[in-house]
Amino acid sequence: MNMPNKITIENIQAAYELAKLVYNKKLKLDYAVTILVTEEGFNDNSAKDYINDYKCIIEGNVFKRALSATGIDYYLSSIKKDGTKIDFDNAIKSVRKHITYYEAIRNTNVIKLRQVVSKHNTIEQYENLIDYSLHTIAFEEQVKKSALLSEQCRNEILASSVKVEKKIAIIEIFNRNPHVVAAVLLRAKGHCEYCGKAAPFRRKKDMTPYLEVHHIIQLADGGEDTVKNAQALCPNCHREKHFGLNK
């Protein structure tokens, strides 16, 4: 990302205040960008990044356009001071997601950014955790890039590959209702409710037909954890629902 040659904490402060106004719909994005470019010395792209990334940070989402460690440090400090605990927790979560994404696609370690998170984070055992979902997305992007390489180039990389590195990941889960799962599985009577075929095998632990309970409208998208919004699927149909063309 192209940044101003000598970005100062005052520049970052101005970007933060403008980003808040844009986020709260008190200022138009284009006007805020113009101010940062003409008065603070940002280029057009970096101005947009500082404003757009604020929205991701305050909502706990991943941002893929990198900010400086100093900028993120200021954003976290200011959100902790200005916002609620939820806002700050979201901000920490967002920066962690960015670290996971950025390190995976660039095959590097953003030490300064990890130090910023460690500085603001009060839960020491979570300092080095990565976000599983973002790690998976970044890994898939790496696979796509590898597929574009020549076979010779890929083989050369494979020949120099080192031992697999182990990391500890954090994953968000929903506290699902076990009664919904039980009711849906019983309703299915051992058959996939999408393709109609019998479950592909039985569970070793209890010999019940192996089906997976899928939410028609995903919980992450606001769907309800109810029998009506769930269906029992075989593994193939379940994967198709998440990754296939006929979602």
Question: Can you offer a commentary on this structure?
Answer:
This protein is mostly helical. It folds into two domains: 9-137, no CATH class; 178-243, no CATH class. 54% of the residues lie in helices and 5% in strands. The chain contains ten helices and four strands, in the order H-H-H-H-H-H-E-H-H-E-H-E-E-H. It has helices at 9-23, 29-40, 44-59, 69-82, 85-106, 111-120, 132-147, 151-159, 178-188, 235-243, and strands at residues 130-131, 169-170, 212-215, 230-233. Strands 1-2 form a two-stranded parallel ribbon. The chain has a two-stranded antiparallel sheet with strand order 3-4. Helix 1 (9-23) crosses helix 4 (69-82). The model is unreliable at 123-127 (pLDDT under 50).
Keywords:
247 residues, HNH_nuc, two-stranded parallel sheet, two-stranded antiparallel ribbon, mainly alpha, 54% helix
Broad shape: globular
**Total of helices:** 10
Query: How far do the termini sit from each other?
Result: 35 Å
What is the tally of beta strands?
4
| Rg | 23 Å
Strand composition percent: under 5%
Mean pLDDT: 86
Low-confidence stretches: 123-127
